[in-house]
Amino acid sequence: MSTEVEARAAEKAELYALDLSQFPRWRSPRGTGDDYVEIVLLPEGARAIVDPKRPDIEPLRYNAAEWAAFTEGVRRGLI
What we know:
The chain is built from two helices and four strands. It is of the alpha+beta class. It has a four-stranded antiparallel sheet with strand order 1-2-3-4. The chain is globular, with a radius of gyration of 14 Å.
C-alpha cells in the first residue's frame, strides 16, 4: 500500500473515530417534517451527514476536499 493511500485511510479513520455529539450541527431551514438531514461541522473543514430519523445508519463523513467536491457536484446538479 502506498504512503498516500495509507495517509488517506488514517485520515478517514480519524474522522470516523470522532464523537459527532461534540460538534455543532446545521440543518437547512428549508427542511420540513422528516425531509431533512443534518450537517455536522467537524475540524479542519470536514463534515458529516447525519439522518436523525435513522440513528442506526452510520453518518457519512467527508474531509474538506471531499466535502468541497460533493457540494460542487450538488450545485452543478450532478448529484
